[in-house]
Amino acid sequence: MALATANDLHADSLVSLSQAKVGCDFQIKVLSGPACDQLRDLGFCETLQVRKLADGRNLICSVCGTRLALSRELASQVMVAVA
Hints:
By secondary structure, the chain is α+β, with helices and mostly antiparallel strands. It has three helices and six strands, in the order αββαβββαβ.
């Protein structure tokens, strides 16, 4: 019972990258969606640290010292937790 509660709390603490606050560091936890395989091919995968730099029509984030622009739709498929 306690394990199920801990898992629920962990899942509730995740937000999508499109909802995340600009200027904060996050750790990618889950990639789920049709275009996420392309992100993995670019090296954008679970456990990676990411910083959201700008929010607008497209999101700009910093990953491993490289800036990457993502559409809002794609960013909504990337679930992150505060690092």
